[in-house]
Write a sequence for this structure.
């Protein structure tokens, strides 16, 4: 049973048209993460939440925003997608504390036309 | 310098070979270490956590050297199904930074 669920699996949007990717979890983890992964590259952390506390990576473009309305859900908003934003977007969750691994969703593959 | 560095490979090995991956991290405050495996067009999946005393899970052995700030993964008796990209991860209070990944191709 999937515990970190991302929707949709594939998303196509137009250049400059806002898009939202969603993530939900049944693990009741208090930390949620968004990663961007481009072809043949490692996942790159965009931001993460400790409960409602939002933490942005210094090099995450302003074009990327996130919302976490409750423990179970987290959204990634891309305000004006550019061609360079085409990638796999991975959501992950973990408990807080030492040696708590992250559990990933299947990812959403975003294409920009 | 990247915070977590790995040799990207690729490593091409025959079935049954033993292969070792190394990874270095620069943040001495890192407290958590993991190896993840990612198959093509799939999400990363936890392979194993890495503990200070070293740990083993079947054919896989992970080691941590805090003094030198590196972690390693040893795969014995490689199987075709071990072909994947392996990422080391170093973290502190939940935030995890991945290395570049090491690609392993096991050939018959």
């Amino acid at each position: 049973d999937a515990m970190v669920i991302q929707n949709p699996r594939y998303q196509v949007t137009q250049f400059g048209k806002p898009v939202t990717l969603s993530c939900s979890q049944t693990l009741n983890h208090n930390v949620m993460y968004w990663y961007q992964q481009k072809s043949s590259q490692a996942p790159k952390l965009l931001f993460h939440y400790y409960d409602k506390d939002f933490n942005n990576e210094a090099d995450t473009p302003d074009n990327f925003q996130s919302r976490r309305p409750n423990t179970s859900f987290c959204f990634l908003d891309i305000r004006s997608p550019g061609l360079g934003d085409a990638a796999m977007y991975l959501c992950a969750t973990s408990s807080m504390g030492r040696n708590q691994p992250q559990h990933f969703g299947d990812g959403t593959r975003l294409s920009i036309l | 310098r990247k915070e977590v560095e790995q040799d990207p490979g690729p490593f091409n090995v025959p079935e049954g070979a033993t292969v070792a991956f190394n990874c270095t991290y620069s943040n001495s405050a890192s407290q958590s270490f993991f190896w993840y495996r990612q198959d093509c067009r799939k999400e990363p999946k936890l392979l194993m956590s890495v503990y200070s005393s070293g740990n083993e899970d079947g054919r896989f052995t992970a080691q941590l050297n805090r003094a030198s700030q590196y972690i390693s993964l040893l795969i014995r008796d490689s199987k075709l199904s071990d072909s994947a990209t392996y990422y080391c991860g170093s973290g502190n209070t939940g935030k995890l930074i991945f290395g570049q990944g090491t690609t392993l191709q096991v050939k018959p």
In short: The first strand of chain A starts at residue 4 and ends at 7. The CA atoms of residues 52 and 70 of chain A lie 8 Å apart. The interface with chain B takes residues 31, 33, 41-43, 45, 48, 50, 55, 90, 94, 96-107 of chain A (CB under 8 Å). Chain A has no helices and eleven strands.
